[in-house]
Amino acid sequence: AKARLDATNDCQLNLLAAFRLVFWHWMQPSAYALLLYAWSDDPYFRSSGSSFQIVMALAVLIREVMYFLCTSLALVQCPAFLLVDVPATWRSGARGEAFASVMMPEKFLGWYLQGAVPSQATSRRFNSYCGTVLVLDGCSFLALWAGLAGWTARPPLPIMVCYTITALSLLAIPSWAFAIIVARAAGFLPDSGAGRRSSDALDVPLGR
Fold first, then answer.
1. Transmembrane stretches, by residue range (predicted)?
2. Is 118 exposed, middle or buried (0-12, 13-18, 19+ CB in 10 A)?
């Protein structure tokens, strides 16, 4: 982000930030809320045994609202998150940071809001936020699994797509951990450099 601030004019920065905010961070929660409202009268939500799916759908809606609010908070406190250069972050050695910003941005934002040296209170808030989001991610996985397995009515296709995206965010954590273990066992990855930068100035949120 710092390199982009040094090398790019304000107009380009504003366009990049606006594009990422709308089409990367806000599109997912907005699309899910609109799709859920549009399909609320569908027989799927009114069939026998649909109570489970309704509860799961509302749980995922809460998850998306939390993501939207976290993005709004980050926009006020440290808007530089919109300028993160993922390839440069990966090359710097912060592979976990780069991976999280793409595959689970809602958790990345919670982590980013902690700052470079998080306090105990900030860490507790982050753990509570991420723990809640993970539980709600699990609700999307359960809703998708129940529909595909025939335990309940199958969700409409647009809702299933949203559930799949959210479930992938849940599965990203064990998948990344497994990939690190395999890469280190094969000698492709050193013992360090898989997570967050420890000394690079880019690690400090520029909004603080």
1. 21-40, 52-76, 129-151, 157-182
2. middle
